[in-house]
Amino acid sequence: MILFRIVHYDYKIVNLALMKLFYLFLIVLVLQNCTKTNYPTNIATMEHLSAKNNPYFSITDTTKVQLSDEVWAKVLSPELYHIARQAGTERPFTGQYNDFDEVGHYYCAACGNHLFESTQKFASTCGWPSFFEADKNGVSYRRDSSHGMERIEVLCKRCDAHLGHVFNDGPAPTGMRYCMNSISLKFIPENDNNLKK
Ligand SMILES: [Zn+2]
Question: What start and end residues bound the annotated signal peptide (predicted)?
């Protein structure tokens, strides 16, 4: 009987401690949520989250990515899949990076390959984010005769995602205009901590 009482007493203490822990956990959870709502979610964080379900996205791995359309459809958003894998084009003046001049780096939204620097971007009036130069190791080119036009398609060198087209009516020093889809790009600010990982 005494033993039972001791055990019972111990059980009560353990129970009390567990309850305390549970309330502490609840308080931490509430505080965390409050902190979250106090600060606006920056673009980079949103992008890292959107890349979370894509195991092939890496800003450090440069090995070629070759996947079936079936796999791409599973890991990319429908909008990105349409542009990257079906050579779609986003509507002009609607893209996130069209009117955007933050300092940082642009990566392929499908695989994380480095494509452009913010210093290579210029304010174009065409309605899509435009660059006068690309990372030579980041992009590849292909002749595109679709829609009754002769154009040069720009693709990601690592995963062959469609990015946009390049024209020869850009500004100095190159005279080139890389006309890109915002959806195909992922911007990471210069001082983003995720770059150090
Ligand atoms: Zn890519």
Answer: none
Q: How far, in Å, is the centroid of ligand 1 from the Cα of 161?
A: 5
Nearest-angstrom CA–CA distance, 137 and 120: 15
Q: How far apart are CA 182 and CA 179, in angstroms?
A: 10
Active site residue 179: yes
**CA 67 from centre of chain:** 18
Q: What is the pLDDT of residue 127?
A: 95
- CA gyration radius for the chain? 24
**Per-residue CA distances from 97 to 15, 55, 109, 147 (Å):** 54, 24, 13, 25
Q: Cα(140) to centroid of ligand 1, in Å?
A: 11
pLDDT score of 168 more than 50: yes
- C-alpha 71/C-alpha 53 separation (Å) is 12
Q: Which pLDDT belongs to residue 35?
A: 38
Which pTM value belongs to this model?
0.73
76 C-alpha vs ligand 1 centroid, how far in Å? Answer: 12
SS3 at position 67: coil
Looking at residue 42, what DSSP letter applies? P
Tokens at residue 179, please?
């006309």
CA–centroid distance, residue 25 to ligand 1 (Å): 41
Q: b/e per residue, 8-28, with b = 16+ CB within 10 A?
A: eeeeeeeeeeeeeeeeeeeee
Active-site entry in 108, 111, 159, 179 = 179
